[in-house]
Description:
The chain is an all-alpha fold. It contains six helices and no strands. The protein starts with a helix and ends in a 5-residue tail after the last helix.
Amino acid sequence: MLALLVGLLLVFGILWPLFEAFFDPEMIREASWAVVVFAFACAVAFYFGGMISSYHAPARHRLHGTLVAPVTFLISPVINLIAGKGPFPEVETYIAAALIIAFFVVALAAAFAGARRGEALYNHNTNYLRRREAAKAKRLRTARPHEE
């Protein structure tokens, strides 16, 4: 939820003037455009959520980053089931169900892309630190005279 909130703040706070500059203001206010903007916010949020989760994971970085989306989408149905409602109350039309599925697919794809990026960043930083430590150890070995 926090990742989605950050994505919404990013899209509606920072990027909204760009949307208004490049697209007709009347078109932006349409419902179909709102779905596109929310899908973009969802993608941004889950990309960064997957990247951060992947980077800080102890192992299986890509899996941890990708699981951000399914876990997030399972929280609400579980709470609804505990409360005695159906998993998706108030979802009565095929359009609403299709939107839920579409947002889940967008979130899953963005989390996977973010997880790949987080894993790549982790590997790059780990290799850099290893090379730096090896160079430091080599400098220390060559700076000390050998005692034999």
